[in-house]
Amino acid sequence: MSRRAFLLGFFSIAGQVLLLRELVSSFNGNELFIGVALFGWLGWVALGAFLGGKKNKHIVPGLLFIIGGIILPLCVVATRLSPLVVTDIVGEIVPFSVAAVISVVVMLPVGVLSGWLFPVLARSSQPSAGTVVQVYLFEGIGAFVGGVTVLFLVGTVLSTLGMALVVGVITATSPAILARRLNGPAIAVFIIGALLCLGFVPWVSTRVDTLVDSVKYRSYRVERSFDTHYGHQAMLSADETRILLTDNAIEAVQPDLSAYENMLIPPLVYCPEARSILYFGRIEFGLTQLMDSLGMFSITAVDPRGELNDIVEDVAKNSSLVTRITSDPIAYVSKHGGQRSFDIIIIPADGLDSYQRSRLFTGRFLRSVKSMLTDGGLLFVPTRYDTDRYVTEETRELLSAIHNVIAGNLSNVTFWPGERTLLFASDTQLFDIPYDSIINRLLRLEYSPQYISDNYLADRLDEFSTERLISVMAGTDITNSLERPRLSQIQTWYRSKTSDLDRKIVSSILRQPWWLVGIPVLILVFFFFTLTGEDRSRRAGLFLYFTAGLVSLSLELLSFYVYQSMAGSLFSEIAVLIGAFMLGLALGAYFVSGSVNSNMGCYSLLMLLAATVIFFATYEQVHPHLLLAYYLLFLFSVALGTGSLFVAATNRYYGTQTTGNRGLGYAFELVGSSIGALLTTTVLLPIIGLHWLLASLGLVLCVALLGSLLAERVD
Amino acid sequence: MKRRVFLRCLGCGAVATVVSQTELLPEFLGGLQNAYALDFTRKLSSVEARFYNKLDGGGIMCGICPRRCFVADGERGHCDTRENRKGIYHTLVYGFPCALNIDPIEKKPLFHFYPGTSALSLATAGCNVDCKFCQNWEISQSLPEETNNYELSPQAAVDLCHQRRVPTIAYTYSEPVIFYEYMYDMARIGHEKSIKSVMITGGYINEKPMAELLLQLDAVKIDLKSIRKKYYKDVVRGELGPVLKRLLQVKKSGVWLEIVNLVVPTLNDTEQEFREMAVWIKANLGADTPLHFSRFHPEYLLTNLPPTSQKTLQMAYDVSRAEGLEYVYLGNLPGHPSESTYCPRCGVTVIGRSGYRVNEINLNGNHCKNCNHEIPGLF
Question: Per-residue pLDDT averaged across B175-203, rounded?
Answer without folding.
Answer: 97
